[in-house]
Every structure is written in C-alpha cells, then in structure tokens.
Design brief:
Blueprint: H1 12-39, H2 43-67, H3 77-98, H4 106-131, H5 140-166, H6 174-199, H7 209-250, E1 255-260, E2 265-268, H8 270-276, H9 280-283, H10 294-308, E3 314-320, E4 326-338, E5 341-351, H11 353-367, H12 377-389, E6 394-401, H13 404-411, H14 413-431, E7 436-441, E8 444-450, H15 454-464, E9 469-471, E10 474-476, E11 480-487, H16 494-510, E12 516-518, H17 521-543, E13 546-555, E14 560-572, E15 576-578, H18 580-590, H19 593-613, E16 620-624, H20 627-630, H21 635-646, E17 653-658, H22 659-664, H23 666-677, E18 682-688, H24 694-697, E19 705-708, H25 710-714, H26 720-732, E20 736-740, H27 745-754, E21 758-760, E22 768-769, H28 770-777
Helix pairs in contact: 1-2, 1-5, 1-6, 2-3, 3-4, 4-5, 4-6, 5-6, 5-7, 6-7, 13-14, 14-15, 17-18, 19-21, 21-23
C-alpha cells in the first residue's frame, strides 16, 4: 500500500504552482476571448491578449520543468524558454481567433479540439526534448493514453471556450467562469506530467507502477469532470434561452403567432387573443387565412412564401376578428429553424389601427376641403392628371360666385362659410354622378365632368343659382360666373386646361357675370393683351403717358363752378387712348393701383400749388381712392407729407371712396379718414346707394359728402323716392349731397325740386384735359 506522501517523482510545491498558473491561464483565456468578441476582431487586442496568455502558459511549463527532479542541460534552457513561449503564443492567437466563430457542426468542433491538442503536445514534447534529451524513454502505452487524454481534454475545453465566448448574457453567474477555469486548469496542468512519464526515464528513482500511473488517474478524473462542465453550462444556457424566448413570446406588446410551414397556427401569446377575439385554444390549429378577406388572402399567402424563402420584410393589412370587426395590423414574419431545418414562421402582429385611422384622416384632410368636405385643389389636380394619362375625354368647369366677397364682408365670415356649405350641397345635388365637384378655395369651385354635354350642365348650374339660397333665415341671391375648358380639345396639359378655364371664367365676369363661357383662342389673345398692357402701364408711369382730366362740379342754382373731379387717362404711344375701364382693373389686379393713385395725388397737389401761386380762385378737387391704397401703412402720412411739400391746405382736396371700403374695415378706415378730416380734407362717398345696408352704415362713417350714383340719375323718374331719401338722409346728418352722371336739363330740374343743387355730368362738361379746364374756368 502506497500513501500519497510516498509519491516522490515531483516536487509538490511546484506542482501546486503549476496548477495555480494553469487555472490563471484559463481565466485569462476566457476573459480575453469574450473581450475580443465584444470589441470586435482587433489585431492589436488579439496580439496583446495572446502575449499575456502565452506568458501565463509559459510560467505553467516553467514550474513543470523545475518540479521534476531530473538533470537537464542549462545551456539548452534558453532554447527551451524561447521555443515554448513561441508555441504558446502562436497557439494562443489561433485559439482565441477560432473561439470567435460559432461552431456549426461536430466536424468543426473536432478540428478545433485537435488543433489545441496539437499545440499542447507540441509545447510539452518539444520542450522536454530540449531539456531532457538524454533521458528520453518512450513508453508506447503511456503515449497512447496521453494522446487520448490530451485530445479529450482539448475537445471539452474548446467546447466550453466557444460556449462562454458566445454566451450573449454577459450577466451570466461568475461561478461558471471560475468552475470551468479551475477544472480546465487542473486538466491542462496534468498533461505535461503525463507527457513526462510517457517519454522520460525515471530508472534512477525506481518508481513503482502506481507512482507512474497516478498522474494519469488524476488527469482522467479531471477530464471526466471537464467533460461534464460544457454539458452543465450548455444546459444553463439553454434554460436561459428558453426563459428569454418564453418571456419574449408571452410578454411581447405585439401579438405573436407561431405558424407551421402550411400556415397553421401552433401557438400564440395573450395579445393575439385580444386582437383577434379568439382564445388560445380556438386559435391553435386554425389556418391564418381565416383572418383575411378574399382580396387580401393571396397577398398575405404570397408574403408568407417570400418569408419562407428567406426574404425578411413586413406588410400592412387588415385582419378580421371573431366578432367581424377589422383591425389594421403590421406583420413582421421571420423563419424558425431547429438544427438548421426550417420548421415554420414566427409572425409578429402590431395593432396599428389608431395610427392607420390617423393617417387616413390626415390623408383625407390633405385631399379634401375642411369646410365643405369636397375634394380640394390638390385632389382635383391629381384626378385631372389621371384623366390625361389615360387619354380620357373630359371637361372642367371653373365657377366663381359673383358678389360673394361683398356678402362675406357684409354679414361676416361665419355667414359666408355657411353660404359656401349650401353652395357645395347645391352643386353636389345638381352634379350627382355626372362629375366630380371640388372647392379650390374661397368661392371658387371646379367641376370635372367626363365625356358629357357640358354646356347643358353649365346652363342648369347657372339657372339653379338664379334662385336664392337660404342661410340663417336670410334669402341670398348668389349668381355664378363659369369658364369651361375641355380635354383634349383645348389642351392635353392639365395645367394649361385649368388656365384656359380661368381665362374663360373671367371672360364671363367681364361680360356681365351670371353666365358661362367656353374657352377659345380669342380669349387667350385678350388675356395676353392684358398682360402686355400691365407691362406697358408700368412704363407709362415712368414715361409720363398718364394724363389728368378734370370734370367740373356745378352749383345749378347759381350756375357756377364749385369744384372738380380729377380722372386719369392713358395715351398709349401705339394704341392711343386706353379706356379707364380697361387699365384700372388691370392696375387693381396687379397692385399697381397704389402707385397710380400716389401719382395722381402728387400731380394734383402740383397743379393746386401752381394755381395758388398764380392767384387762381381754387375750387376743391376730388380724387378717387381705392381700398388697397387706404390700407397701406403709409397712406395717411403720405397724404399729409405731400400737402406739406407743396404747401397746400387740406380743404382744397376731397377724397372719394366707395361705401364698401368703409364697410370692409370699418374701424381702421374710419380712423384713417378722421385723421385726414382733421387736416381739412373732405371725404365723400362715391356711388352711394348701390352697396349693402347703406342707411344703417352711413351714420358711422366719417364723411362729409354723399354722391348719388348715376344709375339712379339715369332713371330719375322711377328712382325719385330713393333719391329723395338719400337727399333727406344727407341733410339730416348735415352732409352735402351731389348727383353724378347728369346729362339732361330735365334731370337738373328734377334734382333742384328734390333739393339737390350740386351736380356733375356731361350736361355741363365731360372730363377734359387740364389746359382745357383752365382755359374754360379760369379767366
């Protein structure tokens, strides 16, 4: 019987140091491998870790060499150190690099284990041959056992290194790292000793058979334990993965379906039952087609086939629940593999119903008018483009409602909105399925009519709107002006088609409104002429082609001049005199009216200044002012500064405005007018009686004079009561009154009888040039 202490081939102190450094080497190897995987394959990190690992393994072999009480050549020790370190370093680099790859099959596992075994045996055998070359005594049986044990240990250690390197849970309990490192370290530490016993002679010690086989027994025991470590660790990893998968499956905020290759449901989580309305037992075994309508089944099944072929993507569709309600879902499907075999698909369904409804609402709002819910400009343009792409014959009818702006200003925007809603309803009822009605903005509507008798429909629309609309108990008459353009007759371009309809619509307005016009080339020429005139009008300002004409105002009782109204005339160098009713609307549309009216005011002040200096008997001169000019920030200051510049008193000037100007911006305009009145300037209301609510607004206006519109004077007999009321109103409010458009002696006589003695019109004089005015009225 041998006791443990009777085994005296090796020094136990150094043997224990060998085991300690072997365990340390294993810990360093595990930490280095995980660090490299975490940070990526960086050669600098790899080499640094390999050097550290090689040093620790070399120290292990150093303590092995000195734990054996055998003579060795000191001269060869340096060679041993260099050779052993070199092999350990190369082996460390390759082992750490191999550990970064996942093992796909047993063949790769065996090759990796064999490589480690070769490195271990190469380091041990080459080192011992250098140190103990004179004591070599090969023992075949022991050598075979050593080879088997080394390969087995290497396979187990390599498997454990792969497992712990690729375990994604970096919070794995540390005990596995240290248990594995301790067992692997003992196994590694034993291999040099069984190699020594297998290849060196210990005859000088005359060891017993037990003493020779004891290292093998210890390594076998460590090897058996080492074989268990990867299995136990793998079981722990598998348990963690199962728990992670189960948690992901059951606690996923989205619905998760496990489906086989045929599309049959294998399992679901609870969220899937909430979305579908079925319980888990009802869902198991059902085919996924039960959730989809006939129109969507083919698309979803095609998507499933693409997933099975390896194309990972997602799809948005609707699913039908147990209760017959549809939900919008976003499906993401991935293949399921076990042992590299495709067994089915995991489908993750995210309920996007609320998001989809919001998107549809936003999309609806993007293509529909908020007030009327009709298709908007963007949508109708899109439909027009679709028609042109398909080369489908169609016409567009562009409607603009006459006097809507005035109604909106009078009754307010809320009333105007309700009126537009009624207009849209009327148009939809009239058009019905004959076309598509849209609102472009404001009171502008566009109707797209496929191949049909568009002129008949246009006549029906015009006739329909000749009947009043009822809004808030008021009967409102709102007539329409319409322009029509057809594809492909007038253009094959949707943008040009809209432009031509717009030209035709303005043609209707200019010709009395309450009618429709079909586009023709002549209208385009007229429009181009207007654009040309707009450009020429700018030049006219610069070239002083604009002339001041004066029309006298006369007191009929005394037959004497009381003042004059200045009117602008344009003498075009090529086209001659351009009528005011042509160039004034152009100026208003382009915004040039502001500059024209500043020009007129400046020129009038020049004339007044000259008259004043020459001692003329100056009578008040009136100038027409538009709303656009009045609302300019510098309007009042410009008027006042011009008066000061030419040293003109305000009472020599009168500004004529329309009633609508004050009604549109009552407070702001009244404030401006009062500022000017304080400077002595007179304010008169032109065309009085033609606007809305004249009598109710007149007492609010900061004005001095009322001008009876010529439309009343033209039919003075039938309008006698209206004229009488206006004259009475003016006098009761201590305002002066003047009649314009007087052309006959009879009109003058009747106006005298009614109490209006100040007149203006062709009876006395048409508007005449400045020189003629001066020669006629200044003697």
């Amino acid at each position: 019987m041998y006791s443990f202490s009777s085994f005296n081939l090796f020094d136990y102190r150094y043997l224990l140091m060998t085991v300690l450094f072997s365990v340390i080497s294993c810990i360093i190897g595990i930490e280095a491998s995980r660090k490299i995987r975490k940070e990526g394959m960086n050669w600098r990190t790899l080499v640094a870790c390999s050097v550290l690992l090689a040093v620790s393994f070399w120290l292990t072999h150093f303590f092995v060499s000195i734990s054996v009480d055998l003579p060795f050549s000191v001269d060869n020790y340096q060679v041993y150190v260099a050779l052993n370190f070199l092999i350990c370093f190369i082996g460390s680099i390759l082992a750490l690099k191999m550990a970064q790859f996942r093992i796909e099959n047993d063949g790769q596992h065996i090759l990796g284990g064999l490589f480690i075994a070769i490195v271990i045996l190469s380091a041990d055998i080459s080192g011992f041959l250098v140190l103990f070359g004179d004591l070599v005594d090969i023992k075949p049986v022991f050598c075979v056992i050593t080879l088997i044990l080394t390969i087995n240990v290497s396979l187990s250690i390599f498997r454990f290194l792969i497992q712990i390197t690729h375990e994604d849970s970096f919070n794995l309990p540390r005990k596995w790292k240290y248990i594995g490192s301790a067992v692997a370290g003992i196994s590694f530490a034993g291999i040099p000793y069984i190699t020594i016993v297998s290849m060196l002679s210990f005859d000088a010690y005359d060891p017993s058979f037990f003493e020779e086989i004891l290292p093998f027994l210890l390594v076998m025991i460590a090897n058996i334990i080492m074989m268990l470590v990867p299995n136990l660790f793998g079981s722990q990893i598998l348990l963690n993965n199962i728990q992670s998968y189960t948690s992901l499956f059951n606690n996923n905020p989205a619905a998760v379906f496990s489906v086989d290759l045929e599309g049959n449901i294998l399992d679901t989580n609870l969220v899937a039952t909430d979305i579908t309305g079925y319980n888990k037992e009802e869902l198991k075994g059902k085919h996924i087609r039960i959730f989809f309508s006939d129109a969507e089944k083919s698309e979803v099944l095609k998507y499933l086939q693409n997933v099975l072929q390896g194309n990972v993507s997602n799809i948005e569709t609707q699913i039908l629940g147990k209760e017959g309600t549809y939900r919008y879902v976003r499906i993401t499907a991935v293949r399921t593999h076990i042992n590299n075999k495709l067994i089915g698909v995991f489908g993750v369904l995210e309920d996007i119903t609320d998001r989809k409804k919001a998107e549809l609402q936003v999309q609806y709002m993007a293509y529909h008018d908020e007030l009327t819910n009709l298709p908007n400009r963007r949508r109708i343009r899109m439909l027009m483009k679709e028609f042109t792409v398909k080369h489908s014959v169609f016409s567009i009818m562009l409607l603009d409602f006459d006097r809507f702006k005035r109604i909106n200003d009078t009754f307010g925007h809320s009333f105007g909105d309700k009126l537009l809603i009624e207009v849209s309803k009327k148009l939809q009822n009239l058009i019905n399925d004959s076309g598509i009605t849209s609102r472009l903005g404001g009171d502008e509507f566009l109707i797209l009519v496929p191949d049909a008798d568009v002129t008949t429909l246009a006549e029906q629309i015009i006739q329909t709107f000749r009947s009043p609309l009822s809004v808030n108990g008021y009967e409102v008459l709102l007539t329409a002006s319409m322009g029509i353009a057809s594809y492909p007759e007038h253009s094959t371009n949707a943008n040009d088609l809209y432009k031509y309809a717009d030209i035709a619509m303005y043609h209707s307005k200019e010709n009395g409104a309450n009618s429709f016009s079909v586009y023709n080339e002549k209208m385009a020429e007229e429009t181009l002429n207007k654009l040309g005139l707009e450009s020429d009008l700018q030049k006219a300002l610069d070239n002083r082609e604009l002339l001041l004409y004066f029309q006298p105002k006369v007191h009929t009782a005394e037959d004497k001049l009381t003042g004059s109204e200045v009117l602008l005339r344009w003498n075009h160098p090529e086209k001659g005199f351009i009528p005011p009713n042509v160039f004034i609307p152009i100026a208003e549309e382009s915004g040039m009216i502001v500059y024209l009216e500043k020009f007129v005011f400046n020129e009038v002040c020049k004339v007044l200044s000259r008259w004043k200096e020459s001692g003329k008997d100056i009578k008040r001169v009136s100038i027409n002012i538009s709303l656009i000019s009045i609302l300019q920030e510098d309007f009042a200051s410009h008027i006042i500064s011009t008066l000061e510049k030419y040293k003109i008193e305000g009472h020599f000037l009168e500004l004529e405005i329309t009633e609508r100007i004050v009604m549109k911006n009552e407070d702001d305009v009244n404030c401006i007018l009062q500022t000017l009145r304080e400077k002595g300037i007179h304010i008169s209301i032109d065309d009085f009686g033609t606007g809305y609510s004249s009598l109710s607004y007149i007492d609010k206006l900061n004005v001095d004079i009322l001008k009876i519109d010529q439309s009343f004077i033209r039919n003075i007999e039938s309008n006698r009561e209206v004229i009488t009321a206006i004259i009475f109103l003016a006098k009761s409010l201590k305002m002066k009154v003047i009649a314009e458009g007087v052309e006959t002696k009879k009109q003058i006589q009747l106006l005298k009888e009614l109490g209006c003695e100040d007149v203006q019109g062709y009876y006395y004089s048409p508007p005449i040039p400045l020189k003629d005015f001066e020669s006629s009225y200044f003697h």
